[in-house]
Amino acid sequence: MTTNSTLYAHVDGPLGAMLLVGRVADGGSLVLRSLSLEGQKGGVRVQDGWTCDPAAFTGVAAQLGAYFAGRREGFDIPCEESGTDFQRAVWTALEEIPYGSTVSYGDIARRVGASGAGVRAVSTAIGRNPLLVVRPCHRVIGADGSLRGYAAGLERKERLLALEGVVANGGRRA
Q1: Which residues in the chain come in under a pLDDT of 70?
Q2: 36 and 44 in contact (C-beta within 8 Å)?
């Protein structure tokens, strides 16, 4: 496979079909560009010229399988840097939320130095996270403990939190 060509694979999981998209880096390793769930708002779609290569994603699929089986709490997957500086700051803050924990959108806003109306910008950046599950945006909830906003649907967010042993405000959705 040529370096920097776009590869993809469909992987089944407990949340439904996942579309993994990546590229081979100069050193020959896979760099994950996105993980989308079927029916996700703003999810990636396979494009002309992409190459279906499930074997390239074997390691990613194995880590996801271990996570869904409760045998893994984080991921060791090289991911492509994308987005604006602000989005990358928000996404870095997401990666710092420990497994089995939740934080509010306001907490993330404070971590990245966004105040007041910055919570809305944080929410927008979280909604544009291209790496669902791997970059744990599901761990961000409303200040009142309610489940809010998840591009792949609140039911999936609730299932991910339950997998991690978190029950957000009795599972109440806002």
Answers
A1: 1-4, 168-174
A2: yes
Could you give the angle at which helices 118-127 and 85-95 cross, rounded to 10 degrees? Answer: 80
Convert the pLDDT of each residue in 113-136 to its tens digit: 987 778 999 999 999 999 999 999
* Pair (123, 48) in one structural domain: no
Residue 10's domain comprises: 6-68
Is residue 74 in a domain?
no
Give the whole-angstrom CA distance, residue 9 versus residue 25. 17
User: pLDDT at position 1, please?
Assistant: 47
Residue 89 within any structural domain of the chain: yes
Residues 113 and 150 in one domain: yes
Long-range contact pairs involving 154-160 (C-beta distance under 8 Å, separation at least 24): 156/15, 156/16, 156/37, 159/14, 159/15, 160/15, 160/133, 160/136
Catalytic residue ranges: 137
According to the model, what pLDDT value does residue 113 have? 92
